[in-house]
Design brief:
globular; alpha+beta; five-stranded antiparallel beta sheet; 431 residues
Amino acid sequence: MTKTDLHNEANKLRQEKKYDEAIPLYEELWNKTGDQFDGAGLLSCLRKLKQYDEAIPLADEIVKKFSDFRWAKNEAIWTYIEGKLNRLEDDATVGKIVEIANAIMTLNPEGVAAKIVVFKVLKAAKAAGEWATVDEWADKLNPDVLSTTPMTDEEGREGWSDQSLWYNYKARALVETDKVEEVLEFINEVINKFPRQKKFFLRFKALSLHKLGKLDDAHEIYRSLCNERRPDWWLLHEYAKVLNDEGEKDEAFKVMCQAAVSHKKLEAMVTLFKEMGLLCKETGRMKEARAHLLLSSLIRIEQGWSIPESISDKITELNSVLTNKSAPSSVREALNMCRETWHDISGVKADRAAIRQRKPKRGLTGKLLLGKPDVLFCFILGNDNMSYFCQKSDLPVGIVDGEVVSFTALPSFDKKKNTESWKAVDIIRGN
């Protein structure tokens, strides 16, 4: 078989996705000719079969020899993304991720490849709180070329798009790096661009105003955001900081209590509990102060985290004052003590009876989202854009994913999310 015949046969097998059959032919050609097309074809097959131990050294060689050959360069880019960047351990440092990402970016990736590389860095740097890195790497992408199509979760609810995520990363980085004047101008340009995520961008504006000492303006934004039905706990937490800085200590603590009651993951709120303890101490509520500081500390111990010396010192100081009162010795004990305060101050209680008083919603229609076959429950995305939980055993026989259904919704309670929910019953086909 001539080189031309061998080349044609290798290409044919690759195009037919018979990569394991094409590889020996490409290897023979590559060893004989060193031709850029043969090298790119071989690299493509190795990558598609996830044989990265052979693909990565070949990509290194091809990049050195044929840096201007676009096909070969693209194959090398995707080899590095799939074989290096995406195979990093979950605990990889930001520095290691940036090192690999920088090497890929020198090859000038475009489109989806560039987005994957940059977003990998942005996500890791955000998680590590390295906001200067987020600010720097966000600028490596042009947001105008990113997708504006919202991503959907397993319940069919629309969320962020690639473009709105980019703006979120950039705005947060500007806030965290104290470029507050710049972020205000930035937010004013995009505030109405993403109506579904408007509250997040308003939040960045409020944070910037707070940093600038414009407390009244920040207060007004937070007040508006926190007057929405079921505001996020972290918004309440930030609002409380503004109130505290304005000298409204009692109102700040009340809002903190509302934040504490509205969220279930204690480990996410250790800073909130610490600040509640310090505020209680400042206002003379020594017993509550110690309970909150101990709650923060005991959760840290449970999670294997260190306890700041400032907290330990405050607890020691409070113990010397509260000599005749026993201190809580476990998370549960501290939590129960703190919850009494939260419910008393905020007036918010997990009243299941009130949930049962909600009336059923009848005559609803929506689209069925079956989800994974091995899961016993699914969801209906209602025409009112709300999600309704249902058991698959309650569905009509033979119904398929995406089918339009009519149903009744009964009040329920989502224990996992610690919030009100709805269960779909009396489900029938059509509308």
